[in-house]
Amino acid sequence: IDGIAQPISAATARCLAASAGIIPLVLGGDSVPLDLGRSQRLFSRSQKLALAERDGGCAFPGCTRPPQFCDAHHIRWWERHHGRTDLANGVLLCSYHHHLLHREGWVIDVIDNRTWFTPPAHVDPAQRPRPGNNLRRILLRPVVPRAEENDAGPAGAAGAAEAAGVVGAEGERAA
């Protein structure tokens, strides 16, 4: 790999190739299936790791919550739409945005491994899709939200990261 003098493991090479879209991400490192269909409702640990690799944290536009603060959500709901527990039907959402999505009726689509969020008409009458946060967030150090920010949603998480000088207002790495 250009710029890296040391060899990397096969697992790292697979992750890089999957992230670059060179190979599909269908099986986990131990050949664990990432598509479970209707056989299991909850996403497996392997699926959550693959979603963390794809989504990098909460996929909702503007949110900076890392994967460890997120739930795997069925895009086509398990009960209501008979959604499958497959990687293509999953997305990582923080608790705040997971509840917001259920409460207000946002629609999620995954197109070419990128999530798109369509707001309900009361948020945007034209219901224009918004790109999700599918770029992995690389933080120089972990950001631990203060107690008063735990349920503050995206502003609290982004504010804590920005105050720490780790990311900019748009969730980008600080220079």
Automatic annotation (TrEMBL):
Molecular functions per Gene Ontology: endonuclease activity
Keyword Disulfide bond: no
Taxonomic superkingdom: Bacteria
Keyword annotations of the record: Endonuclease, Hydrolase, Nuclease
Stretches with biased composition (Low complexity): 152-169
UniProt-listed SMART domains: HNHc (SM00507)
Pfam families listed in its UniProt record: HNH_2 (PF13391)
Transmembrane helix in keyword set: no
Region (Disordered) location: 147-175
Ranges where the HNH nuclease domain occurs: 46-99
Transmembrane domains' residue ranges: none
Protein name: HNH endonuclease
Source organism (scientific name): Orlajensenia leifsoniae
